[in-house]
Amino acid sequence: MIEIKGVYKEFKGKSNNVEALKNINMHIEQGDIFGIIGLSGAGKSTLVRCINRLEEPTKGEVFIKDKNIMTLNSSELREMRKKIGMIFQHFNLLNSRTVAENIAYPMEIAKVPKEDRGKRIDELLKLVELEDKKDSYPSQLSGGQKQRVGIARALANHPDVLLCDEATSALDPKTTQSILKLLKKINETLGLTIVIITHEMEVIKQICTKVAVMEAGEVVESGPVPKVFAHPTHPTTKSFVQNISHDIPVELLDRIDHNRQLFRLSFEGIKTSQPILSKMIKKYGVDANILLGGIDHLQQTFIGSLIIELIGEEEEIKKAVAFLQENNVECEVISQ
Ligand SMILES: Nc1ncnc2c1ncn2[C@@H]1O[C@H](COP(=O)(O)OP(=O)(O)OP(=O)(O)O)[C@@H](O)[C@H]1O
Questions:
Q1: Which residue is closest in CA terms to ligand 1's atom 30?
Q2: Residue 336 burial (C-beta neighbours within 10 Å; 0-12, 13-18, 19+)
Q3: What is the DSSP letter of 139?
Q4: Pairing relation of β-strands 161-165 and 330-335?
Q5: What is the pTM of this model?
């Protein structure tokens, strides 16, 4: 659906140049809800703006539905942009226009006949559950309602892709939930491909199918969300995931016997419901003292992490760890 190949972006300044994107390669499939996460300045907005050529890459190619968009002339580019909706952190609504008129705006530009516009506006208001706000002005709406209008406007011309630039960052947690639910519904009912950029792992956890982690203009880690959550490898990803990975509190670390071996086990999916740990205990005669842990429900799957102390013969502990790894339980030594 979207293929980003070797994309670089350099901003030239008076005193220095900024390399905002460095060799970005990304594959977004039809129907994905693809999250791009990174700290401020990582290059997320620049990357997303390269997808619709609001920003021109310095080097590299972007393909949408197998079409190299770098080769489009300005009228082809306008046509292509009709098929890419975008929503923003601060909604970007026109304050002098009503809700219905805001939704009509992209259809006016696309020269959709007036009677078709009216029908489409009603359909979209129903989809975003704002039928009663048709004639209200943006100033009369809450943040969540404004973003619903932003979503309806972005969908007006039946896009193939929806780009969301920090779409929930200005909203409270409850409103964020309702907007994420709406995006999921749109993805499922319309089969729309959604690209979300955010600095909140919670957003990725809630609805994304895949994630790319960006830092200093590069993608440092990417993959299906359950896999990246269960086995983050890059330190930046680890720090994003930390708040759900049941990190061991310092107070507990102080109290444990440092002559014993401490491990962090991470696992995902079906394994959470299998008695791998008790099998290991029986098979190798080692004791496992569970210090901390939990299982998170992540969309359709589960991911878990446990911090355990293994007590037993050195050789048997090694075998026990190998057994866990054979069963796709990641085992990281924390202390010994
Ligand atoms: N038009 C521009 N001119 C010069 N530098 C820019 C421009 N736009 C972005 N940059 C720089 O490019 C880098 C990446 O910026 P970008 O806005 O893409 O990051 P981001 O991850 O989206 O950050 P945030 O979450 O704060 O929006 C930053 O160092 C930024 O200062």
A1: 41
A2: exposed
A3: G
A4: unpaired
A5: 0.79
Q: To which residue do tokens 């601060």 refer?
A: 90
Cβ-based neighbour number of residue 77 at 10 Å: 12
Alpha-carbon gap, residue 253 to 132, rounded angstroms: 56
Nearest CA residue ID for atom 16, ligand 1: 43
CA atoms within 13 A on the CB side of 39: 8
What is the value of ipTM here, to two decimals? Answer: 0.95
For ligand 1, is residue 199 a contact (CB within 6 Å)? yes
* Digit-coded pLDDT (tens) for 148-184: 999 999 999 999 999 999 999 888 988 999 999 999 9
Q: Look-up: residue for tokens 């780009």?
A: 163
> Is residue 16 lining ligand 1, measured as CB closer than 6 Å?
no
> Helices marked H in 128-172 — which ranges?
143-155
The predicted pLDDT at position 170 comes to: 87
Distance 217 CA to ligand 1 centre (A): 9
Can you tell me which residue has the tokens 């050789």?
A: 315
Question: How many CB atoms neighbour CB 218 within 10 A?
Answer: 15
pLDDT for 7: 96
Does the beta carbon of 41 lie inside 6 Å of ligand 1? Answer: yes
The percent of the chain in helix, strand and coil, each rounded to the nearest 5, is 40, 30, 30
The per-residue DSSP string of 187-220 comes to HHHH--EEEEEES-HHHHHHH-SEEEEEETTEEE
- Name the token pair of 80: 């292509």
> To which residue do tokens 């009677």 refer?
115
pLDDT < 70: residue spans in the chain: 242-260, 269-274, 335-336
Instruction: Give, for ligand 1, the residue of 17, 36, 39, 45 to mutate: max count of ligand atoms closer than 8 Å to Cβ.
Output: 45
Whose CA is closest to atom 6 on ligand 1? 11
Taking CA atoms, 103 is separated from 183, 210, 212, in Å, by: 17, 30, 31
Rg (CA), the chain: 24
Quote the tokens at residue 32.
């994905």
Cβ(64)–Cβ(30) under 8 Å?
no
Q: Phi/psi class of residue 18: alpha, beta or left (left: φ > 0; alpha: ψ in -120 to 50)?
A: beta
